[in-house]
Amino acid sequence: MSDFISEKVKNMQPSGIRAFFDLVLGMKDVISLGVGEPDFVTPWQIREAGIYSLEQGFTSYTSNKGLYKLRLGLSRYLKNRYGLEYSPDEEILITVGVSEGVDLALRALLNPGDKVLVPVPSYVSYGPVTELAGGIPVYIDTSKDGFKLTTGKLLKAIDEKTKAVVLNYPCNPTGISYTRKELSALSKVLSAHKLIAISDEVYGDLTYDFEHVPFATLPGTKVSTVYLNGFSKAFAMTGWRVGYACGPKEIIAAMTKIHQYTIMCVPITSQMAASEALESGKKSVEEMKREYRRRREFVIDGLNRLGLRCSRPQGAFYAFPSIKTTRLSSIEFSRRLLAEQKVAVVPGTAFGDSGEGYIRISYASSIENLKSALARIEIFLKKRS
Amino acid sequence: MDEILEILEKNGRAEVGDIAKMLKKKPESIKQSIKKYEKEGVILGYKAVINRELVKIEGSSVRALIEVNITPQKDVGFDKVAERIYSFAEVTSCYLISGTYDLLLIVEGKDLNTVARFVAEKLSPLENIKGTTTHFLLKKYKEDGMILKHREENKRIAISY
Fold it and tell me: Which of A150, A352, B56, B125 sits a CA distance of 20 to 30 A from A187?
């Protein structure tokens, strides 16, 4: 049967983590800190807008680019919030989450053999999707640099086949983000080498220590940046699957071409709900953000107390502590923690080899859960020492 | 609002040590703030929110909303009359409101009769009371931000990227 499968797909890295994930899913009474989505339900007024749109009979396709109302709303939202100007007519495309945005951007931009730089540890899709698009992912290990891409490492990785860099900040899995100064330095390197930035900023609204700076707002970057964002994380709307891609009109037009054949359009119910989110969701987002920030402090304090050294994540809802003191591999640590104490975390290696020695802990979970989980991790560590 | 209050308003049992960690402050400073709030009457108390639909509590199974029309007293306005009313233990809430009547009370009693008797014998005869309208409460859906219907937990898959 496997003869039927394309070589490309056959050669895609099978996730070694799959087996571990299946283990977690098959187990009962687990405290899971392995979840990559908010524990909040979508705020009611947003859900209500979705329900109302169904009642009103909005059940058709929308334009390929997405509802004009939503694109207009986004255009205004980005201008007000970041001073970022995108035309709703030509420079914004509504996608099925940021995941589709990443795929479209890579497919629209890459010629066979083009290289895409991916700082790792990173979200899981960038590398495989690059390969599917005919490109070659080049991974840049950031683990020695506090999980930040440095201009030095960036310069070293660039060659004549390099076409684009995938940025993701605040970062899943590390929670690391960049200041304006750091981004500015990176943007100069990108400009000098005429590279495109594919910037996944889906956690941008969940930045705690400083204002999030969209890459496209830096001087001279807008013409060569695909800005990707979505409603999943900040508005707690993961299941609605609404994201958006903004960029130069030629790139958005190219992405829309693929989108119209593969997706057609994002479900109208979701788009209507997203539109409501833009109009009335701000207060809920702020409330959730405050809650995440408190949990962050709680978790970082707890992990450091347990000797699982953890640098301070500036955004998202993840902590990425080192487990090297246990001398276990990431996967072994995770497997044993699950078996012995029923706490689920994601091994750092799920996000690339450079995640070895780390685990990802999601604090999109109640303080009570986090507290019990930390207590269980403490017992786990004590039994080992 | 101070985040300490935000945390306690959601969870009155939040521990000082945990709040300190969440806000990155010393437990001692959290303790002091809470004491101050308690002393100033910002924090009035701590209690469990009980769903009485699920438990029968002796002597308080019927509730009524009572609209009260009153004649304000010279010098002290509504406050003095309100005080005479809210001092009854049967009155669990008392609000001065705008509109066609003046006070809105929530009154609790063990049955219909008890509440009716309270209105007839204690409330109505009070000086300054011009009239009352009693609404018996049939079903509670939501109270103080808490929805009474037990809802299924949001089921996220236990592990995801």
Answer: A352
